[in-house]
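agent> step 3/5: call structure_predict on target 'TetR/AcrR family transcriptional regulator' (Roseateles subflavus).
agent> reason: downstream docking stage needs a structural representation; sequence fetched in step 2, passing through unchanged.
tool.input:
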Amino acid sequence: MEAKTERSELTQTAIVDMALEMAALEGLESLSIGEIAKRLNLSKSGVFSRIGSREALQKAVLDEFDRRFQQDILLPALREPRGLPRLDAIMRAWLARACQPGHRGSCLYAAGAFEFDDREGPLRDMLLSGVRRWRQVLRRSVLQAVECQHLRADLDPDQLVFDLDAIFTAVVRETRFLRDPQAPERGWSAYQRLMQGLRCP
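tool.output (status=ok):
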């Protein structure tokens, strides 16, 4: 019984992994139970029994993306001291992640924002929730840097979060669409210039 449960968990992991790769490279709307089954050489009923509906599959993909996103960016940064060192670590990892090849470097938050910008529904709501959670992480990190007197107390945290997100979005486009190999360095340079004007004297 235990071996059967383990096989089932492994299959579910394979399903979510394949779906995440599809979503990253082809968009969340590309996901279908039938296509996942075909690519993994499974029956549609087998995929459905482990995942459920297409909407449940899309939710599982976003949950897994969010988990990996946090693992790649936030968790390593939390090892750094509070304040600017931690914010620097977040930005460095965030920009570096955008430059990973294939689906590993794709950002469902950035791509999904364009894919679902003028649509309503539960999938858009899930994407929006993920983006807002991440912006709260950035805002909290900015406020900690202010509390540590690394950044000026009179800065506008929401404006800074907007600017950081804008830098990342530009790096994603420059790296993945324009295929500029200098995009990561340009993004980091833009971040450093931005922070120079905000540091405490």
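agent> step 4/5: record observation. The mean pLDDT is 89.
agent> proceeding.
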